[in-house]
Amino acid sequence: MWRKAGPRSGPAVSDRGGGARGSVSPGRSLARSEAWFAAWMVAPSLLLIALIVFLPLAYSVWLSFAEVDLLSQSGPVLDIFGMRIPFFRFVGLDNYARVMSDPEYWRALGRTVYFVALFVIEATVLGLAMALVLDANFRGRGVMRAMLLIPWSLSRIAVGILWLGMLDADFGAINGVLYRLGAIDSYIAFFSDGFTALNVLIVVYVWNQAPFAAILFLAGLQSISPDLHAAAAVDGAGYWRRLWHVTLPSLRPMMFLVLVLATVNGFLMLDLIYVMTSGGPGNDTTTVTWLGYRTAFSFFRFGPGTAILFTLTLICVVLTVVYHRFVLAKFRAE
Amino acid sequence: MSAIPIHGRSRRWASATMIYGLAAVVALWLVGPFVWLFITSISEQRDLLMRPMPLVPPHPSLDNYAKILGLVDFHARHQTAQILPSMANSIIVSVVVTAINVVVGSAAGYAYARFRHRLMSATLYAILFTRMLPVVVLMPALFLIMRQMGFQNTLSGLILAYCSFTFPFTIWIMKSYFETLPRELEESGMIDGCTRFQVFYRIILPISGPGLVAAGAFTFVLCWNEFLVAQVLNSKQGTGTLPVTIAGMVGQANIDYSVIAASGFLSAIPAVLLALVFQRYMVQGLTAGSVKG
C-alpha cells in the first residue's frame, strides 16, 4: 500500500534455486545459503515474539483454567532459567462456568455489543464523510489532511482528559458554549446518567478513531481512476449518483478493512473508560474488557479475569480469520 | 468541463462555498477540542468556572506548566512531582523500543519481502495473528512472568513487553516497503560480489529511509501513548510512564482541572509533532500497517 509502488519484478530470488529441489543443480548451494541468510534475518524477531507473545499467551490460557492464588502460589511449579513459574491449581472450566453464570457478565456483554455497533457505524460513516470532504479539490487540503493525524496521535489518556474538559458539568466547554448561546439554562451533567455516559464514551472514541478510518478511505479514494468519474459525469451522473455507483463500489475492500478494524478496536477499548468513567456510574459503562481488567487487576482474581478476557479474544480471533480470508486475499488479487 | 451550463459560474461558486463550509466544520471537529485543551491549560480554574464562560482566557499564563514542571510550589506539589521522572521513563522506553524495532524488525521485514518458503509463510501468518491479538489478554500472564523474573516495575520489563505489540507492525510496514524496491538493485549488487548481507546493509538500507522513518515514528508514537501495559506492570511510583502518572492525577479532588490539562497537553506535544512532521510517512505506515489501537 505504499504509494511509491515500484515494479514487482520476477519471482523471489530463492525460488530459482529452491524450485530445483532434489535435482542436482548449480543453484542449489546458493539456494541453501540464501535460506540460511533468511533464517538468520528472521530468527531474532521470531525468538522475541515467541518469548513475549506466544509464551505469555499459552500461560494466559492456562491461568484461565486455574485457581490463581497470588499469595500462596500453590500447585506445581516450573523451574526454568532460575525463575519459578507457578502453575497453581487446575480447576478445568470452573472459571468460565462462574463467569457465564454471572449476570453482570451478560449485562456487560450487552453494553459492549451496543458500544461496538454504534461505534463501528459512527466511525465508518464519519470517517467516510471526512475522507470525501478531504478528497475534494480546495485550498488548504494538505493542512486539513495533516489535521487528521491530531486526534489519532493523542494518547487515549490525553483524549480522555481533553473530553472531560469539554463535557464537565461545572467548566465544560460544550456547556459553556450552549449556555452562552442561550440553548440551556443550567449546565448538563453528561456523566451522571449511565446511558448518556456510555453514548458519550462512544462519541469520544469516534473522535479519536474516525480520522484513522478517514486516512484509509482517502488512500482508497486516491486509487480510483479519475477517468471513471469523468466517464460517469459525461453520462450525466450527478455527485450523489457517482458516489453511489462509482466511488462506493471501488471502496469496498477498504470498507471491509475499516469495519473489521473498528470492530476489533471497539471490543478492546479500555483506557478511555479508565480515565473518563471507571465503568460507572454504577456499572453502566462497564464493558467486557473493563470487567475482565477490573476482575484481574483490581480484585486480583486472575482466573476469572483471564477467562473473561478470553471470551473477548475468541471474538477477535474469529474476526482476524475473516479479515485474513477476505481482505488480504482481495488485496493480493488486485 | 465544457459541459458546464450557462449558469455554471454561480453553481460553481455555490459548490465551492459548500466545500469550504464543510472543510471548516471538519477542521473545527478535528482541532477544536485540542485547541481548547491548550486554552484551559493556560487558564485559571476560577475563570473556567465563570458564567458565562469566557472563550478567551482573561488571565492567560503559563502558571499551570510551571506547577507541573516543579518550578513553583503549590499544594499538590507531591502529586505532580512524578511528571518529570515519568517523562524521562517514557522517553527511554519509547526510544529503546523504537531502536530495537527498527534494527531487528527491518531485518525480518526484508527477509519476508524477498524469500518464499513454507516456513516463512507459516511464521508470517503467526506474526499476522499476533497483530490482531488483544494485548490485554496477555497481561495477567506477563504480570506474573515479569514478577517472577524480577522485571516488574523496571524499564527493561516494559521495553520487552512493548516489543510484543510493536514488532508485528514494524515487520509488516518494512515488508511492504521493501516489496516496492526493484529486485534489480540486489541482483546488480550480487554480481558486483557483495554477500547477501552486504547487499541488505550497503544497498537496500541506505535507500530505505521512508520505510524506516514510517516504522520508527509509528513505533515511537505507539509506545509514547501506551497506557494499559505500563499501568499493570509498572504501578510502583517512580517507575511509571507519563500516561500512567497523568491518569493517576485525574479525579484527585485537590488538583485543578487546568493543571491536569497542562500535563495532558505537555504529554501530547511529542507525538503530535512527530505525526505532523512525518505526516506523509505516518499515513503510509498507517495504511500499510492497518493498525488496531
At the first level of CATH, the class of the largest domain in chain B is Mainly Alpha
> Can you write the helix and strand succession of chain A as a string?
HHEEEEHHHHHHHHHHHHH
The strand order across the widest sheet of chain A is 1-4
Please bin the fraction of helical residues of chain A.
55-70%
CA-based gyration radius of chain A: 26 Å
What is the fold named in CATH at topology level of the largest domain in chain B?
Answer: MetI-like fold
* Number of helices, where a helix is a run of at least 4 consecutive DSSP H or I residues of chain B: 15
Distance between the termini of chain B: 43 Å
Count every helix of chain A, treating DSSP H or I runs of 4 or more residues as helices. 15
**Secondary-structure element sequence of chain B?**
HHHHHHHHHHHHHHH
Of all chain pairs, the largest interface belongs to:
A-B, 117 and 116 residues
Biggest pleated-sheet summary of chain B:
none
Shape label of chain A: globular
Oligomer: heterodimer
Number of strands of chain B: 0
Helix content of chain B: over 70%
Q: In CATH terms, what is the architecture of the largest domain in chain B?
A: Orthogonal Bundle
Beta strand % of chain B = under 5%
Integer count of domains of chain B: 2
Kindly state the mean pLDDT of chain A as a whole number? Answer: 83
The pLDDT mean of chain B sits at 86
In short:
The complex is a heterodimer of chains A (334) and B (293). By secondary structure, chain A is mainly alpha-helical.
Descriptive notes:
With 334 residues, chain A is mainly α. Helices cover 69% and strands 4% of the residues of chain A. Chain A contains 15 helices and four strands. In chain A, the strands form two sheets. A two-stranded antiparallel ribbon of chain A has the order 1-4. Chain A has a two-stranded antiparallel ribbon with strand order 2-3. In chain A, helix 2 (27-64) runs antiparallel to helix 15 (302-333) and helix 4 runs parallel beside helix 9. The longest helix of chain A is centred in the first third of the chain and has 38 residues, at 27-64. Chain A starts with 12 loop residues before the first helix and ends with a helix. The model of chain A is unreliable at 3-26 (pLDDT under 50). Chain B is an all-alpha fold. Chain B folds into two domains: 3-77, no CATH class; 79-287, MetI-like (MetI-like fold). In chain B, 73% of the residues lie in helices and 0% in strands. Chain B has 15 helices and no strands. Chain B has helices at 8-41, 45-48, 63-68, 77-80, 83-114, 118-132, 135-149, 155-178, 184-191, 196-204, 209-225, 228-233, 242-249, 257-277, 279-289. In chain B, helix 11 crosses helix 15 (279-289). Chain B is globular and about 75 Å long. The mean pLDDT of chain B is 86. At the A-B interface, helix 1, helix 2, strand 3, helix 4 and helix 5 of A face helix 1, helix 5, helix 6, helix 7 and helix 8 of B.
